[in-house]
Amino acid sequence: xxxxxxxxxxxxxxxxxxxxxxxxxxxxxxxxxxxxxxxxxxxxxxxxxxxxxxxxxxxxxxxxxxxxxxxxxxxxxxxxxxxxxxxxxxxxxxxxxxxxxxxxxxxxxxxxxxxxxxxxxxxxxxxxxxxxxxxxxxxxxxxxxxxxxxxxxxxxxxxxxxxxxxxxxxxxxxxxxxxxxxxxxxxxxxxxxxxxxxxxxxxxxxxxxxxxxxxxxxxxxxxxxxxxxxxxxxxxxxxxxxxxxxxxxxxxxxxxxxxxxxxxxxxxxxxxxxxxxxxxxxxxxxxxxxxxxxxxxxxxxxxxxxxxxxxxxxxxxxxxxxxxxxxxxxxxxxxxxxxxxxxxxxxxxxxxxxxxxxxxxxxxxxxxxxxxxxxxxxxxxxxxxxxxxxxxxxxxxxxxxxxxxxxxxxxxxxxxxxxxxxxxxxxxxxxxxxxxxxxxxxxxxxxxxxxxxxxxxxxxxxxxxxxxxxxxxxxxxxxxxxxxxxxxxxxxxxxxxxx
Length: 499
Known about the structure:
The protein has 16 helices and 20 strands. By secondary structure, the chain is an alpha+beta fold. It folds into four domains: 2-175, no CATH class; 177-355, no CATH class; 360-364 and 417-499, Pleckstrin-homology domain (PH domain)/Phosphotyrosine-binding domain (PTB) (PH-domain like), CATH 2.30.29; 367-414. The strands form four sheets. Strands 6-5-4-10-9-8-7 form a seven-stranded antiparallel β-sheet. Strands 13-12-11-17-16-15-14 form a seven-stranded antiparallel β-sheet. The chain has a three-stranded antiparallel β-sheet with strand order 1-2-3. Keywords: Membrane, Transmembrane, Transmembrane helix.
């Protein structure tokens, strides 16, 4: 154990099995980028001499093997103790050196993808603020090396060049484990069934369109008669009655939900949360086992997402946005699916030492509904009428359905839009079906801004924007006098927290 801890201060390579892994990666990249030509190669192989095929395969494999060996020997990593930096050397022809300050390391994630399991090795990813991609990836580490390296990089205490002290730090992190939570498979299943309906539908439709297009192109390259006419397909589809079309859409939605459920189960299978004094560790995955860290002190925003069905089932989806993370970057956001209310309260209270309770709230003025009616109903229909007048008249019933649904969504969104606040926290609530509540500490805000258009002065309305290290959040059509008071209080708390 001591030798492994000390070895990080000297340049070292990955596990030797990494050569095989790099070779497989190279093969995968070739297939991914040239898969069409590979298929055509086998389709037309009767016109090519067999010895040429064998020679081409042998040459390709030799090139990939040599490339994997060179990649392995040119990849080195170590800890620069004097400058407190993690250093990576890599590259064959164009060599590069990456240096990351220890204090700038945001996350260190350990994962074991499906292929890694065959070789009993792990992948380690290091992330820093301000980057949407992982800064550094080490693809082949033993489990113990990966765990030891993660402890070194994430510890808040300066690492001294002492084996005994390094071992003591690692030991303390294990001893200080307070509790653990396991999300049951049934809870993950319930979440998978009740989440991402719209996304699943459009993802499946996009996949079908993409597959249809690629199949057509492949058949054309193979010089085969495709017999696929888009105009014919479109006319035949429109010839169906409305109930049949709705039936087809319903089947696609059900298939999308099933696919999303299976994907969710595979991704979040056996979800475990382990708590230390300074952080949480999330471990999950069926084929691709992941291990990510959430540092309590770096959590900027906690987002809770729950729809009506999930509320009845007592489950929700919680995301922890840390410094430099954006809510839209799903891959880089730590999240817990299918967590129940008791588990959620325990998790939040260990970060903030309490569960926020709000007595004050602001709601938008009803004028926001009028503005949204112009934006989402009147203007789109007016433009459609100008461009395709006859089509709008012939299918007027579809326009009526659109108006009713759009108006319903606007009213629901207006009803759910609220701003809550107390002395320590601010919470924004929004959504139509999936209701999002984003909560953040006042003292951790970077700044707060309020604004008011000239036509809002008579109605005393305005908007407020909260800027955090994990993004900005805005709410409109609120009482401007109350916003001024909230702004002054937030600025006061931000300034006093800095002092």
